[in-house]
């Protein structure tokens, strides 16, 4: 019996190294130890070599590139704000939120991606806003806005058409122009709500 056990242990010795090395216990960081539990050797910090003139030139190039990109972004935002302010000045009674919402709708229904809307696209915009005017009135207003009679209206023509779709009363917006403000206010109100508040209002 003892001889058999000795034979078994001898054969197992080919597969296992004695004593068996323990793996690191849980409160040690795994990356500090090898798979067999031995501490990892600390890699000495690499010696920092001084920057060459080429390295300095590359670093300066990327620094100036980042500064130029930031400047371009700021100028682009400034131009956008200036352009938006000019549009708001043209359409008294509308604010930036209303203009931005109409711009989003224009892009959404620009099915040909040509920067213009056809009559069907224009009707889709009106329906998304909740307008209930007849097709005859819509067609009449659209044709009046289509100055070159090519069946398309540009973004500028679109804004003028929506703004003047219903005549003002005592200098106050009415009809479709007023509806655009109401829709924009509702969108802004919803966008300011938290997810929980949106759930309470049943928006999901």
From TrEMBL:
Q: Which UniProt keywords apply?
A: Calcium
> Any idea which GO molecular function terms this record carries?
calcium ion binding
InterPro entries assigned: EF-hand-dom_pair, EF_Hand_1_Ca_BS, EF_hand_dom
Q: Where's the EF-hand domain?
A: 97-132, 133-168
Q: Which Pfam families match?
A: EF-hand_7
UniProt cross-references to Gene3D superfamilies, sorted A to Z: EF-hand
- The protein's name is EF-hand domain-containing protein
Provide the species name: Parnassius mnemosyne
């Amino acid at each position: 019996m003892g001889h058999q056990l000795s034979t078994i242990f001898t054969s197992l010795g080919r597969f296992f190294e004695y004593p068996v090395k323990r793996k690191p216990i849980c409160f040690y960081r795994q990356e500090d130890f090898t798979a067999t539990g031995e501490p990892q050797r600390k890699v000495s910090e690499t010696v920092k070599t001084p920057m060459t003139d080429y390295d300095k030139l590359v670093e300066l190039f990327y620094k100036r590139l980042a500064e130029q990109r930031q400047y371009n972004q700021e100028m682009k935002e400034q131009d956008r704000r200036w352009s938006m302010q000019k549009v708001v000045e043209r359409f008294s009674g509308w604010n930036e939120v209303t203009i931005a919402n109409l711009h989003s709708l224009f892009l959404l229904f620009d099915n040909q991606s040509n920067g213009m809307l056809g009559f069907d696209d224009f009707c889709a915009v009106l329906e998304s806003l909740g307008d209930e005017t007849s097709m005859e009135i819509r067609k009449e207003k659209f044709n009046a806005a289509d100055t070159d009679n090519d069946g398309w209206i540009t973004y500028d023509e679109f804004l003028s058409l929506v703004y003047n779709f219903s005549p003002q009363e005592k200098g106050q917006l009415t009809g479709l122009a007023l509806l655009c403000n109401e829709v924009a206010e509702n969108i802004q109100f919803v966008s300011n709500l938290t997810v929980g508040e949106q759930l309470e209002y049943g928006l999901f």
